[in-house]
User: What shape does this take?
Amino acid sequence: MEWTGLNELREKYLSFFESKGHLRLPSFSLVPQHDKSLLLINSGMAPMKKWFTGEETPPRKRVTTCQKCIRTPDIENVGKTARHGTYFEMLGNFSFGDYFKHEVIPWAWEFCTKVLEMDPEKLYISVYEDDDEAYDIWTKDIGVDPSHMVRFGKEDNFWEHGAGPCGPCSEIYYDRGEKYGCGKPDCKVGCECDRYIEFWNLVFTQFENDGNNNYSRLAHPNIDTGMGLERLACISQDVDNLFEVDTVQNIMKHIMKIAGVKYHDDEKKDISLRVITDHVRSTTMMISDGVMPSNEGRGYVLRRLLRRAARHGRLLGIDRPFLYEVAETVIKENDTAYPSLLEKHDFIINVIKDFMGVEHRIEYVRDKNGVRYYNDSKGTNPDSSIKALEAMSRPTILIAGGYDKHSEFDEFIEAFDNKVKLMVLLGQTADKIEETAVRHGFTNIIKTDSLEKAVKICAENAVSGDVVLLSPACASWGMFKNYEERGKLFKEYVNSL
Assistant: This one.
């Protein structure tokens, strides 16, 4: 199999199925239309539900797409592993009561072995345990060796989602070789390691589930297939994960240039590079489809992704707005497939550039005499303040303390990690935090009785290149109405310096 770029793989797939009588449709919007069950489109078939159910008539009985998708359950794991991503593209070919197994299986094999020139010896096939029809097509019609066939049960090879159309599926796996394996003697298709990678799922929608697991045959069965484009590119380019695929890697290289770091030099920096790469891909595509930062729904998802990307930028030492610059590269790498990115270029860039994050959560206030001031009044517990400290890339003067919620502060102090040069304490917890700090060997502490005095103390002790961070690790009660008042007063005092 020859090395093939992601954009070329997309085009090869869509052109192939056009040659088989399929109508090529552009990707549907990430914003679901007339479907309240989804926040964002998360699969190739999701926008076509009503075509599968017969509620609406499709433009043709055969359709092929490359669908933009967003999946949000694993946002916190993105970056921590090389596997997780928020944004991806799903290739698919669909039949609405037209062709079925005897057509789609040979086409899948033809595309893999003829168009992509995959070695048949590296391909493995799974079928549902009772689906003898699919098994026979693969082995007798196609000629796949039975040793390359596996049968799995309902959990693995039967697609259904409650009541409605459902059916068995057949998955195609690629053997990436021993270097990706776990080394166990019983390693085989279905193993949790990365050797046998599933890249294409053929779903044979031939039953109707009445909601009580009673199945009846559909008069006109459907075909729904899904192939992860980035996963296919990993196979073609022989790289470990989606972040090393050509178009995605080009985005990461732009971030590396801005930050002055290299991938694979430092695991913590690698996490940040992956987070920013994924999140800017996601947000660029979401904004192009009309999603705007907000406090709820898909707008909240967008805001969360932008905030997380910006925080990891600070972890890389980037002290200026930069996400919009990376979005330029996202647009460049995808504009051929998605020309609307060019049409909406200025809009996308301006939305990202103007995004100011969330008030009182690691909020940039100003730069004074080379000192940066950040308001994290929303850091009302030690865990939140630890996150804020992690986001600081400069020597830090920390303002902490407030109402005692009976928290423990050991992990909070341990998170200083030689970054905090001075801590200014106030409120009920001042003595408690000081005692904990001293116990852990941190003694550069000043206590005061007001936030205004705390800001002045910080300004007097800060030098160019420092950060002053308000992140109390405590509630505001007793000194302020709420954390909003605390944060607003902090900003007033800083701006009056």
About this structure: DSSP finds 17 helices and 15 strands in the chain. The longest strand covers residues 196-209. The mean pLDDT is 94.
